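Reviewers of the previous submission asked for a worked example of the structure-prediction workflow described in the proposal, so we include one complete record here. The input consisted solely of the amino acid sequence. No template or homolog information was supplied to the procedure at any stage.
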Amino acid sequence: QVQIVESGGDSVQPGGSLRLSCRVSGSTFWGKTMRWYRQAPGKEREWVASITPYSGMIEYSDNVKGRFTVTSEKDKNMTYLQMTNLKPEDTAQYFCNRDAYWGQGTQVTVAS
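From that input alone, the workflow returned the following structure tokens.
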């Protein structure tokens, strides 16, 4: 049974930075595409970034390109989302996804 757990969410001021972490357990297959999504109150879930360690492919939505960086760490089975220059519109619950599996999310709030 694959389990996904996100962490690292917090409240920060505009311009601040955060690093979200995503731990995958219950799976021995490394290299599949990991995706970050976010959902703000009253809005649909939005794709943010993807990383496929097997191929090295990394993609970002236009909203975060240049500010967010997605990485992965094979030995720890972890995926990270480094977020810089955060804006109020980045406020959302952030979710990690692989295939049909989702974590419970971690809250990011950007406000003065």
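The radius of gyration is 13 Å. We consider this example representative of the routine output the project will generate in years two and three.
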